[in-house]
């Protein structure tokens, strides 16, 4: 089996050229043969008329001498009268192609034409001695052979030049594919930095652009994977280090009795943080793997939003936040359990990153076949440079893994994934230092 596309293209082109040349040779030969026959027919008729004049002037003996003088020419000449053959060119057999009927018809005055190879013309004429039929058969074999040789020479030249050009052009055609194949192997080995510099605007160029786009996306994914591992390691390491340090201190008796309870409480808090982190990681992994149960149904969205806000009342009252809730009766077709996580995370962020005595505004309305929910909070806001990344795992606007808030950077990643599962959309608009607005669009 031929595996090289270079060899396959050459063979395909070569076969196409050979078939084309053979067909061209046959068609051209047939065309020229017909053209030559038509041209020679006119010439033979004119020559025949000249021979008739010679016969009338020279008689039988003189005409025989004339036929002997032209015996080296590629002609066969036969002269018949009503009694049979009168004269012919020397060294040629009596023609077997002349039937008695044909001879009689020409003597009677008909012109005979056989317009295929071999060409044959029969001309009638009359003298004082009676009526005659002159048959002339030119030998066109040599002429046809010359034409075929010329055509074959031209076709072989075309074949040579065409093959040379195909070998060259196919190499240029296949070269980008070879580079793409090499780049694909490098990509498979984990080299996500490789890029193709193919400037073609054709399908190969589009393939190269698609490859570059794929490599860029894989590079981003690989970087996200590395960041994810680093962030998970950091988030897990911090509570584990704290728990280990406190456990060692308690075991070695380095903690006074009055402080032991406080140390146990800290260990419990760090354990809860560790448990919360692993639960969120597990939840996000399940969502991204599409393994989470997805049971959409029609339910009242306004009631869900109101109930979720009530369950978090202690949190927003602690910061003395003003709640502006204005949502009419809205129905939505979604997974109620998953959407609970969305509102919990969005409410939690609106409270956590709000200022004291701030405000949270929740609005909702129908929009054609969709419903739109807007959650706005006054607070620190999000810098514009951070907005494109806030839905990525472990991304936090607070840098250097600060602990001013209990955030792992997973909540909005979960929100985005759940919204995507519902074929919905989520948009963020923020004015740094003033407010942040989340706009969610869901199907009814």
Automatic annotation (TrEMBL):
It holds the Pfam family HisKA. InterPro entries: HAMP_dom, HATPase_C_sf, HATPase_dom, His_kinase_dom, HisK_dim/P_dom, HisK_dim/P_sf, HssS/ArlS-like, Sig_transdc_His_kin-like_C. Keywords: ATP-binding, Cell membrane, Kinase, Membrane, Nucleotide-binding, Phosphoprotein, Transferase, Transmembrane, Transmembrane helix, Two-component regulatory system, Virulence. It is an enzyme of class 2 (transferase). SUPFAM superfamilies: ATPase domain of HSP90 chaperone/DNA topoisomerase II/histidine kinase, HAMP domain-like, Homodimeric domain of signal transducing histidine kinase. Residues 231-444 form the Histidine kinase domain. It catalyses: ATP + protein L-histidine = ADP + protein N-phospho-L-histidine. GO terms for molecular function: ATP binding; phosphorelay sensor kinase activity. It is a multi-pass membrane protein. Its EC number is 2.7.13.3. The chain crosses the membrane at residues 12-32, 150-174. Gene3D superfamilies: 1.10.287.130, 6.10.340.10, Histidine kinase-like ATPase, C-terminal domain. Residues 171-223 form the HAMP domain. One of its GO terms (cellular component) is plasma membrane. Member of the two-component regulatory system HssS/HssR involved in intracellular heme homeostasis and tempering of staphylococcal virulence. HssS functions as a heme sensor histidine kinase which is autophosphorylated at a histidine residue and transfers its phosphate group to an aspartate residue of HssR. HssR/HssS activates the expression of hrtAB, an efflux pump, in response to extracellular heme, hemin, hemoglobin or blood. This is Heme sensor protein HssS.
């Amino acid at each position: 089996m031929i595996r090289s596309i270079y060899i396959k293209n050459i063979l395909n082109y070569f076969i196409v050229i050979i078939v084309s040349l053979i067909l061209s040779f046959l068609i051209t030969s047939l065309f020229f043969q017909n053209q030559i026959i038509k041209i020679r027919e006119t010439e033979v008729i004119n020559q025949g008329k000249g021979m008739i004049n010679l016969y009338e002037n020279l008689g039988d003996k003189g005409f025989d001498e004339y036929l002997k003088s032209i015996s080296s020419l590629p002609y066969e000449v036969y002269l018949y009268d009503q009694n049979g053959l009168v004269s012919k060119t020397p060294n040629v057999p009596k023609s077997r192609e002349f039937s008695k009927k044909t001879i009689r018809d020409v003597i009677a005055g008909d012109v005979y034409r056989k317009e295929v190879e071999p060409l044959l013309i029969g001309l009638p004429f009359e003298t004082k001695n009676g009526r005659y039929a002159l048959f002339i058969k030119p030998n066109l074999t040599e002429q046809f052979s010359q034409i075929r040789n010329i055509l074959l020479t031209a076709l072989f030249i075309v074949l040579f030049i065409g093959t040379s050009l195909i070998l060259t052009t196919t190499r240029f055609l296949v070269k980008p594919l070879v580079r793409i194949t090499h780049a694909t192997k490098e990509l498979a080995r984990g080299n996500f930095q490789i890029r193709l510099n193919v400037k073609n605007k054709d399908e190969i160029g589009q393939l190269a652009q698609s490859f570059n786009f794929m490599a860029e996306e894989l590079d981003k994914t690989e970087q996200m994977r590395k960041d994810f591992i680093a962030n998970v390691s950091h988030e897990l390491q911090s509570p584990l280090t704290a728990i280990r340090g406190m456990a060692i201190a308690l075991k070695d008796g380095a903690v006074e009795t009055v402080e032991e309870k406080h140390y146990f409480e800290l260990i419990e808090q760090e354990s809860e943080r560790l448990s919360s982190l692993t639960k969120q990681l597990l939840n996000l992994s399940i969502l991204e793997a599409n393994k989470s149960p997805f049971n959409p149904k029609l339910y009242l969205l306004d009631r869900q939003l109101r109930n979720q806000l009530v369950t978090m009342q202690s949190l927003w009252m602690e910061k003395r936040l003003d709640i502006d809730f204005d949502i009419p009766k809205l129905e939505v077709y979604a997974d109620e359990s998953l959407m609970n996580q969305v509102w919990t995370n969005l409410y939690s962020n609106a409270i956590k990153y709000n200022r004291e005595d701030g405000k949270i505004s929740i609005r909702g309305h129908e929009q054609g076949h969709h419903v739109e929910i807007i959650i706005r909070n006054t607070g620190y806001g999000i810098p514009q440079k951070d907005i494109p990344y806030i839905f990525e795992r472990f991304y936090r606007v607070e840098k250097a893994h600060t602990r001013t808030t209990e955030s792992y950077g997973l909540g909005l990643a979960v929100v985005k994934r759940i919204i995507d599962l519902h074929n919905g959309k989520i948009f963020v608009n923020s004015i740094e230092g003033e407010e942040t607005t989340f706009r969610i669009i869901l199907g009814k």
